[in-house]
Write a structure and sequence with these properties.
By secondary structure, the protein is mainly alpha-helical. The protein has one domain. Helices cover about 90% and strands about 0% of the residues. The protein contains 3 helices and no strands. The protein has helices spanning about 1-100, 105-115, 120-130. α1 crosses α3. The chain is rod-shaped and about 150 Å long. It starts with a helix and ends in a 6-residue tail after the last helix.
Length: about 130
């Protein structure tokens, strides 16, 4: 009978150990499934992030090209404005001289007031002065 009790005790302990091992395996399996679900969710998020980055990169390339075009256009406009301003400064005494001549000013007045050469003043008077209507 002692042997039966020992055998029974060993069988109960073995069954308890097997049951504990089985419960441990079930818990590990549940954790594995939960981890797999989290990994899949993270992979989906990662793919969305990759797509977003790809879209942003494409947009940035287009924006970079547009900014470059705008900078180039700004440079061209600045050059044109500078050229126009230089032209205005260069032409300013001549425009004023033409107006004065059309109002009846002489070449002497142009030389004294506008500080242009005598030959320039005479040319302006000949080109833009009052013409005799005969």
């Amino acid at each position: 009978m002692f042997e039966f009790s020992v055998s029974m005790a060993v069988a109960v302990v073995t069954t308890l150990i097997a049951l504990s091992a089985w419960l441990g395996i079930v818990r590990l399996w549940q954790r594995l499934l939960a981890s797999q679900a989290r990994v899949e969710a993270l992979e989906e998020q990662l793919e969305l992030i990759r797509q977003s980055i790809s879209g942003l990169t494409a947009g940035a390339v287009g924006l970079d090209r547009r900014v470059f075009e705008l900078l180039q256009r700004e440079r061209e406009l600045a050059e044109r404005q500078e050229s126009f301003e230089i032209q205005q400064v260069d032409e300013q005494p001549y425009g004023q001289a033409i107006r004065l001549v059309q109002q009846g000013a002489s070449s002497g007045r142009l030389v004294s007031e506008l500080e242009i050469s005598e030959s320039e003043a005479e040319l302006i008077v000949r080109l833009h002065g009052q013409r005799d209507s005969a």
